[in-house]
Design brief:
Blueprint (H helix, E strand, L loop, with lengths): L9 E2 L5 E2 L16 H10 L3 E4 L6 E3 L13 E4 L6 E4 L11 H11 L3 E5 L12 H18 L10 E4 H4 L11 H11 L4 E5 L16 H20 L1
Parallel strand pairs: 2-6, 7-9
Antiparallel strand pairs: 1-4, 3-4, 3-5, 6-8, 7-8
This protein binds zinc ion.
Zinc ion (ZN) binds next to loops.
Amino acid sequence: MSDDPRFKPLKEKDGFAIIPDRWKIDYFASAGELSRFFLELKDNAKIMGTRCPKCGSLYCWPRSWCHDCYVDCDWEEMTPRGEVVVFLDADGAADPREIAELLVPIAQDGADMVLGSRLSGARVPLGMPWHQRIGNRLSARLIRLLYGQDLTDLGPFRAVRLARLTEMPLDDLTYGWPTEMIVRAARAGWRIAEVPVSCHRRTGGRSKISGTVRGTALATLHILGTIARHVRA
Ligand SMILES: [Zn+2]
């Protein structure tokens, strides 16, 4: 659908991504024979892929035909399987190619959760205004102080072992969820690692959080409140 290499179709072996938000999609034409992907998502909250009947490759983004075998693919619902869940915002700020880097500490060092930090490493976080940078650093410092967990950022782009995630209750349905997951994980003694990720300017929608200084301030207060609440709990 897009020529942007960040949106190359994922095959089953690449894993799956969860997008905990509503999608607003600007489009100029129908998605043609792949419309079913959008209709199932909108009407039934199902994520659909397609499978090649010949080689068995599973595509999500769906492809109408297999580029290896030149045969038509069949629709198939994507159900939660595998060992690792990856979270990322669906606004183009994160680069899905970096999922591979998030998986390394899980595969090689036994990490339970790997957080993508937009504020460590050499890459300039183009998509993050100064006020959001300050808010994130402040929150990360508070977590270090209270939980001894050395972090530089509390971004949403992360990989988590599915077995760990399913034991964790999460209450926050708004922008506190990334923080809640971190403080609950720190309290539960998870092994948490951090790797640098890039942060692009968003390609879709307008942020309710980082768009303005006021929005960032309110979000930071909410996040600091989340951190404090779990210390008491
Ligand atoms: Zn095939």
